[in-house]
Amino acid sequence: MDYDSDEDRMTTAEQLAAHDPRAAAEALRAIACDDGVGEEVRLSAAELLPAVDPQAAAQACLAIASDKDVGEEVRLSAAELLAAPSRQATEAFHGIPGDRLRHGPPPPPSPPRPPRPQW
User: Counting Cβ atoms within 10 Å, is residue 82 exposed (0-12), middle (13-18) or buried (19+)?
Assistant: First the structure.
């Protein structure tokens, strides 16, 4: 598909969300991670991603926040979006094997080992 502008890509991705959320997530992630797209458009795409794919949203925010060619304000906004607690973020963490959310204080340390006998 041929697009005239970054905004055309965003409009298409937004329209996909109603019909095919998986395709919308892929289109939004592609926009957010594309360093050839304007900074504000990339951030806008990342802001829409949590509703359709929390894991893709994290990837997109990380791509923007770590891109040294992106202005500080946009990078900070992406980092804040990445760090924002949300239901979607919780779901994304549940998708990571072996990871768990911590509730309450950590368990106490193990008791020290008894001294080894001298031979």
Answer: middle
Per-residue CA distances from 64 to 2, 12, 31, 68, 83 (Å) = 24, 21, 11, 9, 13
Give the domain range for residue 59: 6-94
Q: pLDDT tens track of the chain, all 119 residues? A: 445 677 888 888 888 878 888 999 999 999 999 999 999 999 999 999 988 888 898 899 999 999 999 999 999 899 888 877 666 556 655 555 554 555 566 678 888 888 888 87
Q: Please report the DSSP string for 62-78 in residue order.
A: HHHHT-TTS-HHHHHHH
- Does residue 109 sit within a domain? no
Number of domain units in the chain: 1
Residue 13: Cβ-neighbour burial (10 angstroms; 0-12, 13-18, 19+)? buried
Of residues 4, 2, 68, 55, the one with CA closest to residue 28: 55
